[in-house]
Amino acid sequence: MMNRKIIVSVAALGLATGLAACSNDGDTSTTVEETATETNVSTETVAEETETVSSDASESAESGAAAADGAEATEELALASGETALVPQGVIDAIDKHGEASWGEPIAAEETDGGWIISYDGEHYVTWNEATGGAPIWGEIANVWINDVDGARELGFPTMPETPNTDETGWNQEFENGTIEWKREAGSTDAFEALVTKK
């Protein structure tokens, strides 16, 4: 029993001496402390960078989702009924650019085919999608497009306002994938027909 105590004491003393020897060695101690400090600094830096990258990725994903929905910032559009509709900022910009004061307040806002149609009284509309940036459409060309006459909706959204035909036979309007023309029938002074031409 006595021998065991002495052996255990000697082993404990040897261990303490070994540790003391390590801690007394100035270079080893400094190296250990520096390594521990560098590891902590390195860990903190990685954590901060990871947080920044995660944050940036999150913001980028949100921006990408907004762009994919065709919705930059969402804004409230006041309707003639007193209600409001939430629309992309691009719709508001298109209304400011193409809407006429004489049309009054919008009566409806409809999201369709990846874009928006804002309706006014008197068959006036402002259309918008990200590709076109918006255009007005009205009258018979609007009726042909809104009611999908001869597959007119396949032409996509209008890219510019309607213009008179150079031969004064009617009007035409360019769309993303073609043209709609409202023109006088041959030999007639008052009968018109719609011509839907796909690119």
From TrEMBL:
<keyword id="KW-0732">Signal</keyword>
<dbReference type="Pfam" id="PF08310">
    <property type="entry name" value="LGFP"/>
</dbReference>
<dbReference type="InterPro" id="IPR013207">
    <property type="entry name" value="LGFP"/>
</dbReference>
<feature type="region of interest" description="Disordered">
    <location>
        <begin position="23"/>
        <end position="73"/>
    </location>
</feature>
<feature type="signal peptide">
    <location>
        <begin position="1"/>
        <end position="23"/>
    </location>
</feature>
<feature type="compositionally biased region" description="Low complexity">
    <location>
        <begin position="28"/>
        <end position="45"/>
    </location>
</feature>
<feature type="compositionally biased region" description="Low complexity">
    <location>
        <begin position="52"/>
        <end position="73"/>
    </location>
</feature>
<protein>
    <submittedName>
        <fullName>LGFP repeat protein</fullName>
    </submittedName>
</protein>
